[in-house]
Amino acid sequence: MLALAERLLQGGSESPRAPLFPGVYFRQFLPVSPKVKFDLVVSAFSLNELPSLAERRETIRTLWRKTDGFLVLVENGTKEGHQMLMEAREIILGGGDKVAHDPREAHVFAPCPHHLPCPRLNPKQPLPCNYLQAYNPLPFCWNPALKEELFSFLILRRGPGAGEEPWPRITQAVLGRAQHVHCHLCCADGSLQHAVITARRHGRDLYRCARRSHWGDRLPVTMPHGETVLGE
């Protein structure tokens, strides 16, 4: 996969040449020195390839040590993929590194609007927290022009999230009906809510905003004391 990525960045050329995008380098291992950090560290569809929980834990801690700004983890939008991301969230937020190379605390940037346990990990009926993305597949004759894929993601940042509004995130497709909108939300208090928004009850501005929102967006609604302004 690394060889294919390198070939694609060279425009498909079989002979070695400079990448089409400058500043891109390929290396098999991360730098050993804890002083070498990066503003953005991304791991996409990789945790599921590791053979054991112990190796996943060590890989997650290594990626976090290399993160100076944001760590982005992406996995398949299945129960297993979501569980691995929540596992990574717990490892990083819980600390426990034997050597603290950076005193700044970890903070969940997205998608969770809180640091509480994921409300979707209900022991009786666990549901994955996932999102839908459309993309253009490789132009083979058997592929359609457009495909859709479910994925789960987690973004962590170093330092506190001071100043960020505790807005809930939309966790399913928004359903627009006659004079009302259905929104399923993950809220800042760690709960899941099904909100039915109408112009008469919640105002035309919020109603229009909800009607134009999409799965994965944050809905800008909060009470003065941080409680969500929505109900069944």
Notable characteristics:
25% strand, 5-stranded mixed β-sheet, 4-stranded antiparallel β-sheet, alpha+beta, 232 residues, OB fold (Dihydrolipoamide Acetyltransferase, E2P)
Q: Could you please describe the fold and organization of this structure?
A:
The chain has helices spanning 2-9, 53-65, 79-93, 199-202, 204-211, and strands at 38-44, 67-76, 106-110, 131-135, 147-158, 169-170, 175-177, 180-186, 192-197. By secondary structure, it is an alpha+beta fold. Mean pLDDT is 87; it is low at 223-228. Strands 1, 2, 3, 4 and 5 form a five-stranded mixed β-sheet that branches. Strands 6, 7, 8 and 9 form a four-stranded antiparallel β-sheet that branches. Helix content is 21%, strand content 25%. It is built from five helices and nine strands; from the N terminus they run αβαβαβββββββαα. It has two domains: 31-158; 166-232, OB fold (Dihydrolipoamide Acetyltransferase, E2P) (Beta Barrel), CATH 2.40.50.
Summarize the structure in short.
By secondary structure, the chain is an alpha+beta fold. It has helices spanning 2-9, 53-65, 79-93, 199-202, 204-211, and strands spanning 38-44, 67-76, 106-110, 131-135, 147-158, 169-170, 175-177, 180-186, 192-197. It contains five helices and nine strands; from the N terminus they run αβαβαβββββββαα.
